[in-house]
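Researcher: Hi, I'm a grad student and pretty new to this. My advisor asked me to get structures for two proteins we've been looking at. I'm not sure of the right format, so I'll just paste the first sequence and hope you can take it from there.
Model: That works fine. Here's the first sequence with its structure tokens right after it:
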Amino acid sequence: MSAYRTHTCADLREGDVGETVKLAGWVHRVRDHGGILFVDLRDAFGTTQCLADPDSPVFAAVEKLRAEACIMIEGSVKARDAEFVNEKLATGAVEVFIRDLEVLGPVNGDLPLQVFGDQEYPEETRLKYRFLDLRREKMQRNMALRSDVVRDMRERMWGRGFREFQTPIITASSPEGARDFVIPSRLHPGRFYALPQAPQQFKQLLMVSGFDKYFQIAPCFRDEDPRADRSPTDFYQLDMEMSFVEQQDVFDTIGPVIEGVFSAFTEKKVDPSAEWPLIPYAEAALKYGTDKPDLRNPIEMQDVSEHFRGSGFAIFASLLEKDGTEIRAIPAPTGGSRKFCDRMNKYAQEQGLPGMGYIFWRDGADGLEAAGPLAKNIGPERTEAIRQQLGLASGDAAFFLGGKASDFEAVAGRARTVIGEELGLVDADRFAFAWIVDFPMYEEGEDGKIDFSHNPFSMPQGGMDALASDPLAVKGYQYDLACNGYELVSGAIRNHRPEIMFKAFELAGYDEAEVRKRFGGMVKAFQYGAPPHGGCAAGVDRIVMLLASEEAIREVILFPMNQRAEDLMMDAPSAPLPGQMMELGLRVVEKG
């Protein structure tokens, strides 16, 4: 294979017994068994057991080996005695008697973390010494999975007639829902480039340029607050765009690709893409409390306001006298015990709400009876009507939250998740997908101003006529693909008509001059025969995270930032050199 090895550490088998071989890799561990030294030698492919006894010419050198030293050995392959065969290793039937040894890369000092074993280390240590952390079996497996998933995505996209193009990394700022990373220009003092939050404008310009289909595995840069399933600086997505398509055409194209990727890399059940439901945003918010529902959980929330209107439960009855309020129920099949209900009420309080009312049903002396404070306040008829609406029975419960949906909906969604998990209702061996559609184009901020709620370049449903009505009532041709509680894909049918674009941005507070200034290239392009087009982007990191059964996205990124957006290994961000600042005509001004 090379001057350093004739085989990898995963190659040797019984058929190689008697051969002289060279292996190179890292010392996984050294064991002393009664004067015989065993070295588990590891490379990227596997592990081979090597040994040296006192008769070996390099015995003294083997004694000095430290874990994680990089070495090359030469020796003869021997068969292991039957009782010592290791069935867990591909090379477990053989071992190599070491006759020569060279230390290619010694270890100086104590290891900050051990590669052998499954010890847990603080994230700070793991990220600071990521090059060691990545040697661990789980991390090697995760990164190999990531590489394989990206290759599989590319092959599937090429197989569907797409060509791969690369779009610029340094570009202009664009409002796409997050803060830009800006880059000062040396050649144009006082002016700045931006790293692209996504290839949004460029992929649309590709469609205007006459390319029928496009994709790339695109790096995206967003200055965002970190969370478990999101990197605070950069991420990768499978980006695609198509001309002459409607929403369903995009679904029919990307759906089989995502389904195929998941099916190729998991043994869990993968819902077929032809059966993925289309759920309007408003329905998702009502039933699941989120626009990325986990459909493995069968619980669906319902509006039960009418059962509390004018009831003896004054808190809910008075709430319903105010505009824009409702009472929502979270069914809890098999959750009908006071202990469980009290625990969930405490959960709601921990989430910042006053609590959750509840009713649970049980068998009584005269048949089915309802229990709990709410049941006593609203009476048997209303309680029975609620039970029938929710389809509940003896041993079941329901939880209730009230007010404006915006005040409690997110907590209700999280409570639904916790209830489903604690009651064992979630099908953990399944990937369940749903297209979320009919997103509102606009949202109202706390200051009362109207702004885009999703992608600003989306086509409003109804075109120009829709923009003449209440902006908060306008829906866009925007869509997300949710899977197991995560957003995996986001996209839209694009707004390719300049007059509609100007009006859409005007409602969000951007006049025509501002639109032309910020998106001049796209505005010009749309005046010269722009085709209808649309597309989407799938989060590569998040897909791999789900396939690897990880809960933190950093576990599937080679060199991630920490929760403070710091690279502890490379010491970034760092202070610029004075010469760099002078060259750019910049200086740092302390905040405050």
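Researcher: Oh nice, that was easy. Here's the second one.
Model: And its structure:
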Amino acid sequence: MTWRPIAPENWRPIGIPDLEPNAWNALRQETSTSVVAGPGAGKSEFLAQRAVYLLETGVCQAPQQILAISFKTDAAANLAARVRKRCPPELAGRFTSLTFDAFTKSLVDRFHATIPTPWRPTRPYDIATLNRQAVENELNRIRDLAPPNWQHDIARFLPGAFESEVVGSMRLPAREPNVRSARGFAVHQWWLAQLTAEPNSKLTFVSLNRLAELVVRANPKIARALRTTYPFVFVDEFQDTTYAQYDFLLSVFGGSSTIVTAVGDHKQRIMGWAGARNDAFQQFNQDFCAHSENLLFNFRSSPELVRVQHCVARALDPQAQPMQSRAPALLARDVVQVWRSTSRQMEGQRLVQWLVQDMADRGKQPRDYVLLVRQLPNNFEEELQPLFQAVGLSLRNESRAVGRTTVQDLLADDAIAIAVAALRLGSGPRNAAAWSTLSSAVYSLRGASEGDEVLRHRTDKDLKAFLSQLGTVMRGSGPSAESVDEVTRIIFEYLDIPALKRVYVAYARNDLLEIMIEGFLRHLKHSAEGVITWPQCIDRFVGTNDIPLMTVHKSKGLEYDTTVFIGLDDQSWWTHTPGNPDGVATFFVALSRAKQRAIFLFCEHRGGRRKVADLYQLLADAGVEEVGPE
């Protein structure tokens, strides 16, 4: 079937009835645009619809592509999946969805030789993750190396903010720097330590963002090539953009004909600790001469939740416009509550008993609920899991490490989604969704376009033979460490690792795919423990019957019927001060994940309420009920 462009005035949204008026305005914009999209506004859907509009109308002409940049792996994967679902494969193939880190790392890897000599890392280099103590130790070392008159200034740098706010905010000069200040000395020594580490350079993602910016600034031909390839760029969660990331965007696409659409919500800026700019939208509007639009519909939360959310939103932005709920209200009462308990045991037992009853009363499944914490999810998992198991429930820590990734990032990965589809098809009867995922991926991996019937027929035949082989192995033995090894080998040999790296840009010139395959193997082995059948193992792998536990930061972009926030107290919020916008924004994000109900738990045994008194006052001002021990 030959695709024909649709006239822009005749184009209609795909998969949804319509867009709100402001979304239509933003979708049709022919200049850079900042789109402020509050909770539940459907920003991912808006970006997907804009991508389809640009592709189907021919506004984005072949072979040009659309580049979408997200901050989280699952957000990038979700956006790509939405576009694939809404337009023909030959068009969806021109939509590239990556995380910021994956995109900048790919540029550093691809153009390594063009990095100016003073800043060129070894090849290969290692990815470093630094904790607070490591940063503090490095700052102490740098201070001791510094001239005496600079040592006092260096001692004043905060370990928690040094890399994101100091290193991340300084552009790298193309030549060896002429250090003239304590700040410049500290940053230069920081870079030297990373670049000259043995046996390989050890780079953080802040460093990679900075190196990528230097690559495009020092090599105008590379910048021009990127602009030619990507005349349309989307940036999701724009409020979380760091100084290094913003400078990268400006150096690549600023002052050019590339049209950038920045989407986010300044009221949900919760990455300040990681160096997010507090003026990202204002600076973008100025530098890119951007048009602005506000999306005002909330398709996620019920009217009562939206009302309470607006009370909190005004604490962050007194000029915040009220959102209009477009979601049904399925609960007549107890939509937002605070539960007060005197002990952790009482709190946990009350929670699990309520969950069991609510699931039974409302016909809900475990993954309709989420437990949110501000930090240390491992501690809450250890405390709560026995109580959950005692009533037949299972809690799943989405932040739990599996090798060099986490459960949440693993399940958001493209290759892992394909492998899980293969597992489902190999383990039992035909599954239409799994077949669609696997066959579409295999067609892409084999280069079998829709019009090539001969290659498609051959690919279908090979795919059926692969599934027959996989099914024989899986039916021949139940889940075990040995069978998991064999099944993993068969799946990824068939998918073909070089083909995956060639087709999926996120895997090009890095070790992300290897990290994900390692995580897949580990997590599948863990899921195989104590189960008899492969379907049971797969359900454990994807968490079908688990209630997820995660930090608020990890919940961005997700939604659940009911959210339960555990630990609204001074201990969990030990860095919060009344009125602090980062803390209020975190609270706002937690509240806005809910579709029908939000519950906040306070345990007197965990900590007091002095530091978080302002958060409780916001709930009280909104008329939220506080329920004491029963």
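Researcher: Is there anything I should tell my advisor about the second?
Model: You could mention this: The longest strand covers residues 594-603.
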